[in-house]
Amino acid sequence: xxxxxxxxxxxxxxxxxxxxxxxxxxxxxxxxxxxxxxxxxxxxxxxxxxxxxxxxxxxxxxxxxxxxxxxxxxxxxxxxxxxxxxxxxxxxxxxxxxxxxxxx
Length: 104
What we know:
Elements: E1 3-10, H1 16-26, H2 30-43, E2 46-53, H3 54-66, E3 70-75, E4 82-83, H4 86-91, E5 92-95, E6 100-103
Antiparallel strand pairs: 1-2, 1-3, 2-4, 5-6
């Protein structure tokens, strides 16, 4: 099964639609979404998520693009799904089949 990484090339200005997309993609709260926005704005272009399945990758790309981000999906050899943000990865366990996260 192919795995992909989602790369964010640029992020939109902080707005309600963008924060809502980040919250939906990660399952985090508003404060974490705002922190994630700041992290992505400071580090773009960067990898947002890696090791995810094709359907989930397509959905995630569409969600983030609709909110105004410039994103791309590339094949990866990583097999374990990861969101590449240090604070959120420590706090949440990722369930990519459902596109949601649960707090650890």
